[in-house]
Amino acid sequence: MRNYILIVYDVKEKRVNKILKICRQFLDWVQNSVHVGELTKAVFEKLKVKLTKVTNKEEDSIRISKIRTGKMLRLEILGIHKKQVLDNGII
């Protein structure tokens, strides 16, 4: 079974790029410090392990929301979609 995952993080500047790279391996980057996508349970656990290894529990915050299916999520975007910006090579 796949879950729709939403990750939002606020980490110290020295770890931002590490967290960003890990999240982008598994999820779509939709906005600064926000990633979403569908993952199997096994892949989700792998993501959490990688994030835990680079996170400082005393300084960083990573919030993960799981939704059983993307069909339950209704997404509305006002303005530019971050993925469009990436695909066009702007960022």
TrEMBL record:
What Enzyme Commission number(s) apply to this enzyme? 3.1.-.-
What organism does the UniProt record list as the source?
Kosmotoga olearia (strain ATCC BAA-1733 / DSM 21960 / TBF 19.5.1)
Q: What is this protein called?
A: CRISPR-associated endoribonuclease Cas2
**Any one GO biological process:** maintenance of CRISPR repeat elements
Q: Name the enzyme group at the top EC level.
A: hydrolase
For this chain, one GO molecular function annotation is: metal ion binding
Q: How does it assemble?
A: Homodimer, forms a heterotetramer with a Cas1 homodimer.
- List the cofactors: Mg(2+)
The similarity annotation says: Belongs to the CRISPR-associated endoribonuclease Cas2 protein family.
Give a short account of what the protein does: CRISPR (clustered regularly interspaced short palindromic repeat), is an adaptive immune system that provides protection against mobile genetic elements (viruses, transposable elements and conjugative plasmids). CRISPR clusters contain sequences complementary to antecedent mobile elements and target invading nucleic acids. CRISPR clusters are transcribed and processed into CRISPR RNA (crRNA). Functions as a ssRNA-specific endoribonuclease. Involved in the integration of spacer DNA into the CRISPR cassette.
Q: Which CDD domains match?
A: Cas2_I_II_III
Q: Which gene encodes it?
A: cas2
Q: Which SUPFAM superfamilies match?
A: TTP0101/SSO1404-like
Q: Which UniProt keywords apply?
A: Antiviral defense, Endonuclease, Hydrolase, Magnesium, Metal-binding, Nuclease
Annotated Mg(2+) binding lies at 10
